[in-house]
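User: Hi! I have a protein structure encoded as tokens and I'd like to know what sequence might fold into it. I'm fairly new to this, so please keep things simple.
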């Protein structure tokens, strides 16, 4: 390694970063191709996004160990956009979304994405996972999938029933199922074998089996790296006047930014190095998406699968993710014909497995027992994405989250402890506003008037003027003659607020 000024090594962790970059490259390669094919675009465009994610975004400040590229989480939205507006408009949408991310990062809005309800984000990913699985089951059987998410799910029973009687479809399904089995079982192989990522091993084995036994399955169509790139034209830029295109741009921006910054928070928990600078990371993602848009490629996000592989492989600096982009570029430039040998059902199997991992079953079970409202938001968001579409599904989830927050903020609870002897102890907690006055007063007036009452108000986060006055009036007139007056325990001065 070259020594810098003062005798210091310029790249002190090059050995670790070089080894990690190879691991990340091997993880990213099948996913880049698979996401592109599932998105309805040439396979090479997935590699272009991976290259930009390594060479451009990888060099920028933000999160030092997070790796960016095309993500399964945007597959459904990209497919819908390509079907609705065409491949030429995709670049304009991605470019505009990238410019919006740059602007938001410059305005220091990156940290605010952490305020988005986790239930909405996980519901979004669950909905994407369900639609991705449903769509890739058609591909695994060698069939054309319906366009809408609801159509994909509704048509599955008939499609699979028809595949059972079709020998070519059965062979294709077998290749897809075998791919999933290899990915799942790969974790049980010896450590030396696991040095090769399971997804890559599954695709290589499926490709070898298809070639050796001449299996009748569809393979990836190859048109070359330069042939796949489409620079946005003026006619495509004019599509930005369409409200539906603007809605898609906003959906790309929201989902890509949220997924990237949530991924950054997760990656920070995996290592002890520098923490993520969220506004700079948002700008790095924006620069990458702007470049991808200019090249007509897929949108990018930070990808937790590659990022965790990068950390686990021992990466120490951003050099590992930059080098992974170099390896993707060399593969795309020197070995593009290899892609033409890859069977589509194998890529479908990889994406079905990726879609399954997007569904937070463990989180849902925990939420259902502890925070049922959040679990319902997660499920409704996922169902809305499947039955309506991505953008409106996320908006429904956000609206529910806001409604739940408003309900929680306006909720007040009265707990009464009456042992039958001594004073009756009552405690108000939550937020007391004039909207809850009828309920509060009805509950308090039902307390016995001939017994001492101790009313604890320390659990109130907020009390407006109407509630303060009403509670004081109730306390002054509630007790019967000869009974001790109501004793009020006020909130601590630091948390007491009045209207």
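Assistant: Happy to help. Inverse folding works backwards from shape to sequence: for each of the 499 positions I chose a residue that suits the local structure. Here it is:
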């Amino acid at each position: 390694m070259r020594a810098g000024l003062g005798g210091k090594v310029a790249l002190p962790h090059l050995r670790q970063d070089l080894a990690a970059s190879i691991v990340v490259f091997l993880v990213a390669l099948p996913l880049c191709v698979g996401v592109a094919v599932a998105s309805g675009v040439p396979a090479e465009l997935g590699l272009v996004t991976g290259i930009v994610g390594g060479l451009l975004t990888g060099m920028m400040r933000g999160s030092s160990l997070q790796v960016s590229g095309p993500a399964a989480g945007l597959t459904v939205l990209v497919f819908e956009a390509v079907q609705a507006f065409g491949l030429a408009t995709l670049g304009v949408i991605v470019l505009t979304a990238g410019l919006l991310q740059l602007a938001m990062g410059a305005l220091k809005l990156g940290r605010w994405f952490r305020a988005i309800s986790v239930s909405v984000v996980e519901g979004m990913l669950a909905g994407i996972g369900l639609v991705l699985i449903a769509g890739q089951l058609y591909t695994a059987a060698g069939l054309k999938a319906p366009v809408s998410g609801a159509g994909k799910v509704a048509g599955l029973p008939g499609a699979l029933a028809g595949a059972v009687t079709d020998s070519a479809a059965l062979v294709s399904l077998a290749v897809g199922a075998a791919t999933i089995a290899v990915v799942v079982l790969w974790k049980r192989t010896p450590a030396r074998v696991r040095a090769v990522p399971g997804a890559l091993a599954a695709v290589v084995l499926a490709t070898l089996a298809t070639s050796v036994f001449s299996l009748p399955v569809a393979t990836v169509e190859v048109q070359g790296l330069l042939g796949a790139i489409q620079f946005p034209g003026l006619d495509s830029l004019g599509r930005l006047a369409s409200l539906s295109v603007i809605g898609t741009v906003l959906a790309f921006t929201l989902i890509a930014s949220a997924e990237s910054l949530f991924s950054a928070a997760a990656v920070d928990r995996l290592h002890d190095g520098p923490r993520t600078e969220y506004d700079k990371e948002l700008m790095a993602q924006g620069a990458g998406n702007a470049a991808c848009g200019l090249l007509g490629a897929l949108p990018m996000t930070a990808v937790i699968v590659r990022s965790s592989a990068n950390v686990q492989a021992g990466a120490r600096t951003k050099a590992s993710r930059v080098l992974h982009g170099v390896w993707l570029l060399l593969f795309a430039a020197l070995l593009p014909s290899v892609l033409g040998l890859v069977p589509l059902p194998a890529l479908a199997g990889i994406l079905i497995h990726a879609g399954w991992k997007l569904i937070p079953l463990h989180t849902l079970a925990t939420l259902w027992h502890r925070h049922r409202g959040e679990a319902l938001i997660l499920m409704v968001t996922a169902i809305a994405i499947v039955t309506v579409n991505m953008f409106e599904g996320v908006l429904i989830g956000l609206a529910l989250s806001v409604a739940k927050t408003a309900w929680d903020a306006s909720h007040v609870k009265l707990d009464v402890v009456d042992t039958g002897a001594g004073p009756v102890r009552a405690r108000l907690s939550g937020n007391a506003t004039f909207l809850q006055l009828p309920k509060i007063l009805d509950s308090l007036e039902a307390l016995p008037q001939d017994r001492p009452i101790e009313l604890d108000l320390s659990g109130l986060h907020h009390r407006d003027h109407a509630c303060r006055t009403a509670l004081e009036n109730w306390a002054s007139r509630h007790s019967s003659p000869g009974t001790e007056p109501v004793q009020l325990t006020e909130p601590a001065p630091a948390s007491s607020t009045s209207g």
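A useful reference point when you look it over: Residues 243-268 form the longest helix (26 residues). Feel free to ask if any position seems puzzling.
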